[in-house]
Amino acid sequence: QVRLAESGGGLVQAGGSLRLSCVDSGRVVRPYTTGWFRRAPGKEREFVAAINWSGTDTDYANSVRGRFTISRDNAKNTVYLQMNSLQPEDTAVYYCAAIAQLGSIPLESADAWDLWGQGTQVTVSS
Q1: Is residue 33 within 8 Å of residue 54, measured between CB atoms?
Q2: Number of CB atoms found within 10 A of residue 125's CB
Q3: What does the DSSP assignment read for 28-87?
Q4: What is the pLDDT of residues 16-65, one digit of tens each?
Q5: What local confidence, expressed as pLDDT, does residue 116 receive?
Q6: Are 113 and 95 in contact (CB under 8 A)?
Q7: For residue 103, what pLDDT is reported?
Q8: Which of 21, 35, 19, 38 is nearest to 77 (CA)?
Q9: Residue 107, helix vs strand vs coil
């Protein structure tokens, strides 16, 4: 069964904005940290941002810091990724991920995460 589902992707012009959502079906063990990754064509999946359960601690990749904002509304089982000042190099499939128990693997590594959504396509035209 689907436990994480992304939405909000689409086509936008450079300089535009999109807000992605990651909805938890309610079957994910709580509390958990949520992250966003992306995979551009021909590239490895890369870390974008992460947020802890309480929303008090966030982390961003240098490439998106200052342009993207991760947030969460636990009452709605949803984590958001607000993306501003989008550039063509932001074009990718964006995935959300969740982990209940942090381990020794850095969160910037895809190997650290337990659950993944199916992804949503973001395309930024120049």
Answers
A1: no
A2: 11
A3: S-SS-EEEEEEE-TTS--EEEEEE-TTS--EEE-TTTBTTEEEEEEGGGTEEEEEE-S--
A4: 999 999 999 877 778 899 999 999 999 999 999 999 999 999 999 999 99
A5: 95
A6: no
A7: 84
A8: 21
A9: coil
